[in-house]
Structures are given as structure tokens and as C-alpha cells.
Amino acid sequence: MAEAAAKPVAVDERGGKMKAELGGVVVLDFGGQYTQLIARRIREQQVFSSILPCTVSLEEIQKLEPIGIVLSGGPSSVYDADAPKCDPKVLALGIPVLGICYGMQWITHVLGGTVEKAERREYGRAHLKVDCAGGPESSELFTGAPATLRIWNSHGDHVRSLPGGFRATAHTENAVAALEDPQRKIYATQFHVEVKHTERGTELLQNFLFRVCKAEPTWSGAAFIEETTAAIREKVGNKWAICALSGGVDSTVAAVLVHKAIGNHLTNIFVNTGLLRKNEFENTLEMLRDRLKLHVIGVDASDRFLAQLKGITDPEEKRRRIGREFIAVFAEEAQKLQAGEAHGEIGYLVQGTLYPDVIESVSVKGPSATIKTHHNVGGLPEKMPFALIEPLRDLFKDEVRRIGKDLGLPAEVLVKHPFPGPGLAVRLLGEVTCTQLVTLQEADAIVVEEIRRAGLYEKIWQAFAILLPVRSVGVMGDFRTYGLTVVVRVVESDDAMTADWVKLPGDVLERISTRIVNEVPGVTRVVYDVSSKPPSTIEWE
């Protein structure tokens, strides 16, 4: 097979976009904490949205044929020397623009207005007075809005003077809160319309999408499936593909989607890395083959993965080694398949990469930072024998579940808790050994069993155990012990971008703790993780 750059494609290698990704709204990211939330809120209106760094070229923006552009918030001040910027010509494209927080300040600054440090910062709730409610001076953005609103602010700078051609459409007690130039189709709010704390925020966003941008609510699961399968079919052509299948929601939906496009030209490969949960390899193979009727090859490569991790304690190095070994296994299996008489050239590797994976792994969103490397994104080698097909790359987890439901996947797949690609390697802190893996597998199985027993499994996002490389003193049977510590992590979330810890009932926590200490040899202490994301991540490594 010819060697190709590890260039992920949302079915297209970014040279030719899927139809579903054209004609939507582009969100330009200035490093704001709510940028992903803006994109989600737009998609909730059945309008496709994609996030690009604020530094992206005008040409790249135009390739997407957007009907609207949103400028996100950000932590900087527009007058700082190193403040994030985008091409000012974005305001002259004739495409409707909505600036939010920093986005409003950037518009003001670039077009000749004045932005200064505020004497009194505005963080949290505030009262908004709409200056254009009704009458000849009414605003498209505030159509249907009452004269006053409760809003959510998060800024330390204020607009002091407006650019030419603009008018203020709303204010708070001490600041201009919204401005617009309808002739140029440029609108802006100092407050965050995308957060739930802002009253009528969704309606304001709808006004921008449907009244200003003239958007059509056509982005749906059915449309995504139809257009994505067509794009995959055209991309793959006469070649064949293999799919990195784990049995989780993401990879299973990706496999079914690609199978719908190219049929028996897809072979799924499920690799036992030795880092899976208790009995997961056997149980998942049975489900994929017998109940989903997918063509799946099971490969037991546990020894080689564990060998790669020997002596490795750095979490990023763990992810990189696991990512490289996955590709090596897939390449070997592809060669075996191509040696068969009825098999063609394998040119593609299918992965269930999601938008949060991309966001956290690669610093592509303006000044946003890389959080951690996901083995299937930033952990891939520079060169690979396949081009990537990642049909879910621009979707959030809840969107993937809806797509899976539309594809007819059973509930047991759709409600399955997320499991990291590197597996238990990132839930076992420090060096990964066979003994510690068994300990963690047993503890993790107890956590999940008790969560199911309490009827909570389908109501939460994730529940799992972490094994710490620390020991603590204990007492068991009148003898002093010096045992291991297990952390229990249970979180609720919508899309893994943010998460909060679940306040489990005391009796559930008690059963989990008691069972782990009594049933898992070597563990003498169980603790509960009560940190949210942010500032923590869901996984520990």
C-alpha cells in the first residue's frame, strides 16, 4: 500500500466538503470558553455549524459557503499587542456576522470604535434594557424580545464609542450591551446569547439564523446519513476500507454508517489491547457479530501493547505508543486481507473520532490550548499506510447517539458509557502492569454493576474506577495493611465538553466501597472524585 499522510478526513480529506457542511454557519474562535457551546446551540436549530480558528484564511472560510459567521468570545483584550485577530475582510464579505462578547469588541475596534478597560467589570447575571423594542427602530436581532431581559455577562472591557454606521440596540446599567449595522448585516452582543442563563438567548440566536441569515432548518440525522454515505461512497470508489471498531457508540455508529455506504468493501477490526474492561473482548465480539451482523475480525494483541507500555509512566507517551501500535496492527491485518483472492486494495481506515476528541487533542481553535492527545487524533504517527475516514469528526456525542438511533442501532449500544481509546492505560496511573490491570478491571466491574443495580446507568454519562500509584495504611482482620487506593469517578454530561460529578446516593457509594475492599485483593481504600470539568478532565490521564 502506498504511504499516505495521516490526514483525517470528515469523509473528504478537507479538499471537498460534504454537502451537509456547506451553507451552514462558521464560528470563528478567539479562544472563548463557550465557543463549542455556540456551535451546539446553532445545530440545535437544525442548522449546521463548524468551528474554525480566528486566524483561518478568508479563502478557507469561503470554501464552506457559509450563510452566517459568528465571532466568539475570548479571554483577551482587543487592544493587547498579542490579542487574537481575524482577517478584517470577513466583515466585508456581505455575509451576516454576529459578534459575541470579545467578538463585539473586535468588531468595534477594527471598524473604528473605542474599546477600553471597564471601571466595573461585568461577570454573571445582569439586567438588559432593549433600546429598540418595537417601533421604526426595531432590530431584527431583538424581534419578539421584551423591553428588559436577564442576561449573562463575562467581560472586563466595554465599548466606549461606536464605529460609524452602527447604533446601540441594548445596554446594561453601565455598558453598551448590543450594537448593529443592519446595512452591512453586522450584529453584536456583549452578553452571551448561547448560555442558558441568558433569558430568551435561544430566541435571539434564532432571529440571527432565520431572520438575518435566512437559514433553513435542514440539518438533521436523516440528511447527515444520506449526504455522508454518498460522500463516503464517492471517496472510497473501488478501494476497500477497514474500521477500528471497539464496540463503543462512536466506532459502532461509524462502522454502520460506512457499511451502509460501501457494503462488503468494509472489514471491521476489533483489537484486544489488553487494556479493555473485564470480559469486554469476548462480549463485544459476540454483540457485533451476532446481534449487529457486522463482519468483524477479532485480534488479540494484548502482549504487544503491554510490551509497548513497559516502564512508561508519562500519560502522553502512553497515548502516543498506543496510537502507533494500533496503526501497526491495522496495517498487518490489512496486508493479510489483501493477500486474499477476493479482496481489493485497502486505502482507508475508518475511526469514530468525535469533535471533542479533535478539540482537546489539537490546538486548532485560535488560541485554544491542547488539553490532551487522543490516541486516534494527536496520537497517530506522522505517516500511515491509510487515509482516514472519520464521518463523525464534526459531531458531539449526543448527536452521534441520535444518528445511531436513526440507523437502527439497539439501545444497548446507544446508552453504552464512553470508554477511552487507550483503555485502562489512562485510568491506571503510572506504569501499566498485568497485575494492576486485573486489579483495576475487577474494581471497575464492581462500579458498573452497582450503578446498574441502582438503576442509574442510563441516567449518567460515565461511571468507572481509577487505580492510583499510591498506597496507604489500613487495618484488615486486626492486621496492619499497606494497600492500594481506588478512585470512583461518576459524572453527568451532554457532550463531554463540560461535566459535573454525580451526587450518588450514600447507600450506592457504600456498596461500591465495601465490595471493592472485600472483593479486590490489595485494595484497602476507596475515594470518590468530586471534581468537575473544568477544571478537571473526565479521565485522569
Distance between the termini: 34 Å
Taking pLDDT < 50 over at least 5 consecutive residues as the criterion, the unreliable ranges are 1-20, 361-380
Number of strands: 20
Helical segment tally? 14
What's the CATH topology label of the largest domain?
Rossmann fold
Relative helix content: 25-40%
Beta-sheet strand percentage?
Answer: 15-25%
What is the C-alpha radius of gyration, as a whole number of Å?
25 Å
Strand line-up of the largest beta sheet: 3-2-4-5-10-9-8-6-7
Integer count of domains: 3
* The named CATH superfamily of the largest domain: Class I glutamine amidotransferase (GATase) domain
Specify the biggest β-sheet: 9 strands, mixed
Which geometry do the CA atoms define? globular
What integer is the average pLDDT? 85
What class do helices, strands and sheet pairing give? Answer: alpha/beta
User: What is the annotated CATH architecture of the largest domain?
Assistant: 3-Layer(aba) Sandwich
Look at the structure and give the CATH class of the largest domain. Answer: Alpha Beta
How does this structure look, described?
The chain contains 14 helices and 20 strands. With about 550 residues, the protein is α/β, with parallel strands linked by helices. Helix 5 (about 220-235) packs across helix 11 and helix 6 packs across helix 11. The longest helix is centred in the middle third of the chain and has 24 residues, at about 315-340. The protein is globular, with a radius of gyration of 25 Å. The relative contact order is 0.10.
